[in-house]
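Checklist before submission:
- one chain only
- standard amino acids only
- sequence pasted in full

Submission:
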Amino acid sequence: MKHRQQHGYAVKKSKKYRIYAMWLDMRNRCYRPGVHRYENYGGRGIKVCEAWKKSFIKFKNWVIEHGYKDNLSIDRINNNGDYTPNNCRFVTNKENCRNRSTTKMNIDKVLEIKRKFTNKRGDRTRLAKEYNISITHVSRILNGESWAS
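Returned file contents:
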């Protein structure tokens, strides 16, 4: 309730809500293990910079000053990097899809992952971080399942 009084962005039916929802989703992906896609973010060690983590207002101000439009999504330039002002930008959904770790996978990388897997504890996590993919994705590769999606 306090956020609504401070900035008015937390009202779901408001056009402004999209920025607030983006902030909530970003934090949830990084810090709430039960949330959809956590394993691809917080599970891989991706964090939100302290300023944005603690302050919606600081995030909102950065968003407005750095090219936000309703048809764009926030994107981390380096998929292994955190959500920080220097590592984020706004892109179309098409551009965002090109920056996904699954899009960057190819047969050579699949073969490398299979060669590097030693079946030791933590191997899947290490490979997921090294190749910027989820642990589930590593498991699919090792099990001979589809690795392109």
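Reviewer check: The mean pLDDT is 83.
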